[in-house]
Fold this sequence. Notes:
Blueprint: E1 12-15, H1 31-36, H2 38-44, E2 48-51, E3 55-56, E4 68-72, H3 79-91, E5 95-100, H4 110-117, E6 129-130, E7 151-154, E8 159-162, H5 177-192, E9 197-200, H6 221-233, E10 239-243, H7 252-256, E11 265-267, H8 270-273, E12 276-277, E13 281-285, H9 290-303, E14 311-312, H10 322-325, H11 333-345, E15 350-354, H12 375-386, H13 391-401, H14 438-443, H15 448-461, H16 463-467, E16 469-473, E17 480-487, E18 490-497, E19 503-506, E20 513-514, E21 516-520, E22 527-528, E23 531-534, E24 539-544
Parallel strand pairs: 1-2, 1-15, 2-5, 5-9, 9-10, 10-11, 14-15
Antiparallel strand pairs: 3-4, 6-8, 7-8, 12-13, 16-17, 17-18, 18-24, 19-23, 20-22, 21-24
This protein binds 6-O-alpha-D-glucopyranosyl-D-fructose and calcium ion.
Amino acid sequence: GQDVPWWQKAVGYQIYPRSFQDSNGDGIGDIPGIIARLDHLADLGVGFVWLSPVYASPQVDMGYDISDYRAIDPAYGTLDDMDRLIAEAGARGIRIVMDLVVNHCSDRHDWFLKAVADPSAPEHDYFIWRDPGPDGGPPTDARSVFGGPAWTLVPELGRYYFHQFAPGQPDLDWQNPDLRAAIHEMMNWWLDRGIGGFRLDVIDLIGKDPDAGVFAEGPDLHPFLREMHDAAFRGRDTLTVGETWSVTPETALLYCGRDRDELDMVFQFEHVTAFHHPERGKWDPLPFDLPVFKRTLFRWQEALRDDGWNALFLSNHDLPRQVSRYGDDGEWRVRSAKALATAIHLLRGTPFVYQGEEIGMTNTRFTDPDEFRDIEAIGHWAEARARGEELEDFLTGVNANGRDNARTPMQWSDAPNGGFTTGRPWIGVNPNHAEINVAADRADPDGVVAHYRRLIGLRRDRRIVSHGQFVAHAEGHPQVMAYARELDGERLSVVVNLCAQPVSFRVPKGLEVEGESLSANVTPRTQVRGTLDLAPYEAFAVMGP
Ligand code: ISL
Ligand code: CA
């Protein structure tokens, strides 16, 4: 088709390497394991992989604490394995987009070791150091995302360093031009190795001013991103997508507007945080509310209608499994998994599939804190227990929104450990792997994989899916998500019943169409008009003049 960037017609697939496929029986996923499973991705038809961190790391935060940006963690493999992954994926038309974690590094990184050993070393100023506060304690009352203060004292220096996340994740001081140059150099080293781009971890935080209590979207953020673009992205055919929890429809184009020369896309999270309790956050989930869900997604479609580009997702390694959070992981698991996929994949933007989403994997059930592997849950349970909170109350939050739900091993077959490992898995495998696994789902021509493969193909082959204008419909409808895409006098009408009850849906005038069934999870339809009787979680798309 016309010269649109490759990533506007592709679907991404996020791999969490620790949980995807173990190849050597140590219970930890690895790069050779990923290579062994590339045909699954090629069959799905995805155009690129977002690979969560595989760099050297003490694994305090599962690799989001990097101790050497130019080395692969031995548990995951070697740089040769990485080069092989890039080549093998490339041979299948799949680019490897790497996770880049540069808001912070690990406290085991050579830079931090030097910073502590010698305050006069240049690396000392790669970090944010402050004297103790007047009471001898932390300089400010800033809190870590994982619980506890965001400042930790280094006794031998008598100074505190800032860490938005764990103490093992000291923030890098982006005000330091030498640090920025070192990061840009590393980025080019990876891009020259043939990767397809970067997913930039919590990139909205790099302009922070901790003394002023400004953490997200600080005054220097966009100048830093423009400098990064000029230093590493300009002239390359890469994809850059920023993780920006603070972005709003009003600020999105500052990152990804066509003339901004910063990033291509951002991950926004309003459809996620809309269901977090205003005070207690994700640990006290609010009930799903479809009008709120739709209003958020539709608002973002409007905001980026003529410029910028949406990143579309419901799942990732930090989020609960979407069929549990937004669908029905019981009676209607398969059909609601397809319905959610239809709802997301036919919007305007680039969809991201998180590993396991394509077979309708579900949340697991934690009953004991000893089962937690995520530093965030461990840290927040420690604080909740100190506040006297009951375990079962905290478990309600962990089972609804805990990050480990997404990190249980990929379920490939009904073999022990779901075929993920022949060893002892680093985290418990979801007991339902005997029924829910890739082999079982693929054996069903009407399986979830088949549904995803078709949706991914539509984005690649149908310009109305990749570039048709979005038109919202029935915004207030409590059970049905409906919208149209329009291009060159054709209309694609998408209707999704996102509840477990049958619904009688009166088709709005602007949604009416008659023509070709592009997708359906119950029976194919060729007409959208009048009043339709929708089955529970029925989803379909019809295209016509
Ligand atoms: O959801 C969160 C905030 O409400 C946190 O779980 C998470 O830290 C946040 O989404 C930022 O995530 C990214 O940075 C973290 C890392 O733990 C996450 O895995 C990563 O996606 C620190 O690098
Ligand atoms: Ca392994």
